[in-house]
Amino acid sequence: LISMMTTDEQFLSWGWRIPFLFSIVLVLGALWVRNGMEESAEFEQQQHNQAAAKKRIPVIEALLRHPGAFLKIIALRLCELLTMYIVTAFALNYSTQNMGLPRELFLNIGLLVGGLSCLTIPCFAWLADRFGRRRVYITGALIGTLSAFPFFMALEAQSIFWIVFFSIMLANIAHDMVVCVQQPMFTEMFGASYRYSGAGVGYQVASVVGGGFTPFIAAALITYFAGNWHSVAIYLLAGCLISAMTALLMKDNQRA
């Protein structure tokens, strides 16, 4: 949005700073919400029963007791990270450089999916409470799996309608269905005394492994296969399928 409201010179000079300054408002809002929340009964019981003896650093405790949980978190976040980064980052460069599509198309798509997420995430969270977190998660991951090839086929056909449609299917529907239930799923993998540390570190490691490298891996695949998009579609499909299979094999700990 800022890039469309400013010239290239203005954006490079000061425009790019505006979203970062706006994040101050988001942080203050998050702190206000967090201060108004009560701790879970399980956590309060853990504090009450906590032994006086000095314990190991929580993240070390989490690594020693639940090493497999970190791998599960990486696998579960693949769908979220690949759908978002491929649609909003990789496709922006690929479509302009290889397809000749206007740059504004994916900038507007990024704005659209961001706005829709304000509605879809609460709706999917409500569905997760009603029908179960794992069902919603698996459904979202499978939607991402089924939308991978059609998204790139729409790019190749340069069909604006289908590009927007499958961008929403990936970066809104699939992405938001998995992201709205991730945090409770992740925290339930760890004990109450080191839950925050375990889930937090696992989440950030997954961000680097599954998200940070995604645009570079996708670009490398395009280069290696001489501009053929099928390899990136397979990469996206495989990531979503791995997330779906991981969730399917997990025990459902959600309480009624």
Overall description:
This is MFS transporter. It is a multi-pass membrane protein. With 256 residues, the chain is an all-alpha fold. 82% of the residues lie in helices and 0% in strands. It contains twelve helices and no strands. The radius of gyration is 20 Å and the shape is globular. The N and C termini lie far apart (42 Å).
Q: Could you name the CATH homologous superfamily of the largest domain?
A: MFS general substrate transporter like domains
Radius of gyration: 20 Å
> Which architecture of the largest domain does the CATH hierarchy give at level 2?
Up-down Bundle
- Spans of at least 5 consecutive residues whose pLDDT stays below 50 are none
End-to-end Cα distance: 42 Å
How many E-type strands?
A: 0
- Helix fraction by DSSP (H/I, runs of at least 4): over 70%
Number of domains: 2
Oligomeric organization of the protein chains: single chain
Overall residue-averaged pLDDT value:
84
What form results from the Cα inertia axes?
globular
Q: What pattern of helices and strands is seen along the backbone?
A: HHHHHHHHHHHH
* Sheet with most strands: none
SS-derived structural category: mainly alpha
Task: Please report the number of helical segments.
Answer: 12
Q: What is the class of the largest domain in the CATH system?
A: Mainly Alpha
CATH topology descriptor of the largest domain: Growth Hormone, Chain: A
Sheet-strand content, in percent, reads: under 5%
